[in-house]
Amino acid sequence: MSGMHLSKEFFELIKAIGESKSKQEEDRIIASEILTLKKKLDGSSGGGGGGLMMSPGSPIPSMGTPGGKGGNNALSSKKKAREFLVRLLYVEMLGHDGSFGFIKAVELAAAQSIMHKKTGYLICSC
Question: Is the pLDDT of residue 105 over 80?
């Protein structure tokens, strides 16, 4: 019964938090999610040389590979980053620190896609 834009992992996270019996169990689940998000956000740009790239002739940094090579990989990377940032927003809504992902939100706000921009701006406004 997950939404069409939710990954299975995100749906399972929400389900696990909803089914937790105590605040301590919820905190343990969220702490585990925070560690997962830190790992994934650091490596979400794939193996193409890092997360923040400057395109030649553009003053705006972008995520993905330099020079526009591997465009589908960069798009996939942005989709993954968007998913992880939505999960980060959920963690923030539950009262835990998610400030480690704000730089990725700024990067996503500089994306070409309006959906990525909206997500980036939403996370930046927290």
Answer: yes
| Inter-residue long-range contacts of 32-41, CB under 8 Å, 24+ positions, other chains counted | 33/87, 33/91, 34/91, 34/96, 34/97, 34/98, 37/84, 37/87, 37/88, 37/91, 37/98, 37/100, 37/101, 38/100, 40/80, 40/84, 41/81, 41/84, 41/85, 41/88, 41/100, 41/101, 41/104
Cα–Cα dist 75/54, whole Å = 16
Of 28, 36, 42, 45, give the one whose Cα is nearest residue 7: 36
Per-residue pLDDT tens for 31-66? 999 999 999 988 755 444 444 444 444 444 444 444
Confidence of residue 67 (pLDDT cuts 50, 70, 90): very low
3 state SS of 51: coil
**Phi and psi for 18 in degrees, rounded to 5?**
-65, -30
H or E, element range at 74: helix 71-93
The region of weakest confidence among 65-74, 78-87, 102-111, 117-126 is 65-74
